[in-house]
Amino acid sequence: MSRTNDTEHTNMIMIIDKDTNKAVVINRKLSWKGLSFPGGHVEANESFYESAVREAKEETGLTVHNLKFCGVIHWHNIDNGKKYMVYLYKTTEYEGELISGTEEGDVFFMSIDDIKNTKEDNRIA
């Protein structure tokens, strides 16, 4: 029995405006629909941290700093046999102008309370 498996590594970053207590969210419309924090796949040539910084820039236009590691979400997809690892980060340190969206979906700040109260079928992963 092999001890290796097919694992997909991704990240998710909670970018918080400490003055308004709002976080950047994306209302995704491509591979799955709903609210999510910015993030994406870890490329072969980069660290988990570097990928989080890159994905934040690509999806929000913001340059993030001093990311704090918060934990990992993992699951096994029984349909395709893959394992998924999502490395979670947060920060209140960023610069630049938030873009309004990408092909992934609309990008905007949302209050932490509103995120917590979002309907389960549209909730952040």
Structural summary, described in words:
This protein is mainly beta and 125 residues long. It has a single domain, classed as Nucleoside Triphosphate Pyrophosphohydrolase, CATH 3.90.79. The protein is built from 2 helices and 10 strands; from the N terminus they run ββββαββββββα. The strands form 2 sheets. Strands 1, 2, 3, 4, 6, 7, 9 and 10 form an 8-stranded mixed β-sheet that branches. The longest helix has 13 residues, at 48-60. The mean pLDDT is 91.
Short description:
By secondary structure, the chain is mainly beta. It has helices at 48-60, 112-116; strands spanning 7-17, 22-28, 34-36, 39-41, 63-65, 68-76, 83-91, 93-95, 101-102, 105-111. Helix content is 14%, strand content 46%.
At the first level of CATH, what is the class? Answer: Alpha Beta
Unreliable parts: none
Instruction: Give the class from helix and strand content and strand pairing.
Output: mainly beta
Tally of individual domains = 1
Overall number of strands = 10
Radius of gyration: 15 Å
What is the CA-CA span between the terminal residues? 32 Å
Largest sheet, described in full?
8 strands, mixed
Indicate the topology.
Elements: E1 7-17, E2 22-28, E3 34-36, E4 39-41, H1 48-60, E5 63-65, E6 68-76, E7 83-91, E8 93-95, E9 101-102, E10 105-111, H2 112-116
Parallel strand pairs: 1-7
Antiparallel strand pairs: 1-2, 1-4, 2-3, 2-10, 5-8, 6-7, 9-10
Task: Give keywords.
mainly beta, single chain, 125 residues, 14% helix, Nucleoside Triphosphate Pyrophosphohydrolase
